[in-house]
């Protein structure tokens, strides 16, 4: 096979078929064509043997990223976001349809976004379409144009150009998308519960937490499950922060409702008890809750009630976090963690006795399946040769100046994390951050 392989990677530790094992991985034309025992007699134009302290992983798939370009490129952008992704072991991301201008709510705005990204991405990028009031007729054309599914809000999104759906509008959207067997991904917080809660103001984190109570998520998830049951639609709960919704999700799945859920690194690694007043870098919606809630989310991941872990990378310029006042009511809500998601999750997982195969399932295989990206998320013959060399026992201190995010505001600054990404390959080529080789993905089939 020496004339056929472009790259051969030998690893004494690799996550393949759900377990760690020694192997070698042969790549030709960007695709994995051989997964063999470590000692297999194969040759290639380039041979890389990973050192003993590295583990070969499939490239991660992050299905919840706000790139914000075009329109709010000062917040982030395709070049900076995909550099950060590659540095963090993410080889595929899916961009959200809001916080950019125009929002991706019709075929014309999708074309604008694709033009902004073309030739500027260092990893592969797919796109969600948006479902907003009044664009019901645009959903099938967006589906036909290759979006991977549709995002909607049930509560104020924070930007006026992407308004939320009411229950009747949501049901009509789900009925339409069910006929296409298209996925709907939902920001599930109930506006009436939030309106009846005390408004956030000032530097008190406890006050901010009270403004987005567990009941807001519980009510919205219950509405979503009810309408998914009625329409037969495929639905996905975004950034689940509250364990109070877990029983509803588990019961719906037992009944055959097609509902999945994700959570995020910040909900698994942070706790409300540890957030200082005025530390608006911790603000996100829904919020980081208490330590006991966090442990229930870990239990739900292990039980399969929560399917995947993705970043909800939602950056902004530093001034919008209101560091001058520390006012949680005025600050933008979002945590930028695209580059740090893997070490954040691995650090927290390792302390709980959870292995890398589970982390890979939650951060690579399950998100790829969610988005219908059948060639991503696994080291397997026929899959894209998207690969990561991770030193799982090496620690580092988070220095915001070393992050590739355009605005490196992070609640992880100064934290010691475990797991250093030493190399990333996209379709068998090392990602250097110099020559963008990423592709813009369309829905398969």
Give a short synopsis of this structure.
Helix content is 28%, strand content 22%. With 445 residues, the protein is of the alpha/beta class.
Ordered list of secondary-structure elements with their pairings:
Layout (H helix, E strand, L loop, with lengths): L6 E10 L2 E10 L2 E6 L9 E4 L5 E4 L1 E6 L12 H10 L2 E6 L11 H11 L6 E4 L1 E2 L8 H6 L5 E4 L13 H13 L3 E5 L3 H5 L9 H7 L2 H18 L2 E4 L8 H9 L4 E5 L1 H5 L21 H13 L4 E2 L31 H11 L4 H15 L16 E11 L18 E11 L2 E2 L15
Parallel strand pairs: 1-4, 6-7, 7-8, 9-10, 10-11, 11-12, 12-13, 13-14
Antiparallel strand pairs: 1-2, 2-3, 5-15, 15-16, 16-17
Describe the structure.
- By secondary structure, the protein is an alpha/beta fold.
- The strands form four sheets. A six-stranded parallel sheet has the order 9-10-11-12-13-14.
- A hairpin with a 2-residue loop joins strand 1 and strand 2.
- Helix 4 packs across helix 7.
- It is globular, with a radius of gyration of 21 Å.
Using the CA coordinates, give the radius of gyration: 21 Å
- Low-pLDDT stretches are none
Main beta sheet, described?
6 strands, parallel
The total strand number stands at: 17
Q: Report the helical percentage.
A: 25-40%
Structural class: alpha/beta
Give me the number of helical elements.
12
- Average predicted confidence as pLDDT: 97
Query: Which overall shape is indicated by the principal axes computed on the Cα atoms?
Result: globular
- As laid out across the biggest beta sheet, the strand order is 9-10-11-12-13-14
**Pattern of helices and strands:** EEEEEEHEHEEHEHEHHHEHEHHEHHEEE
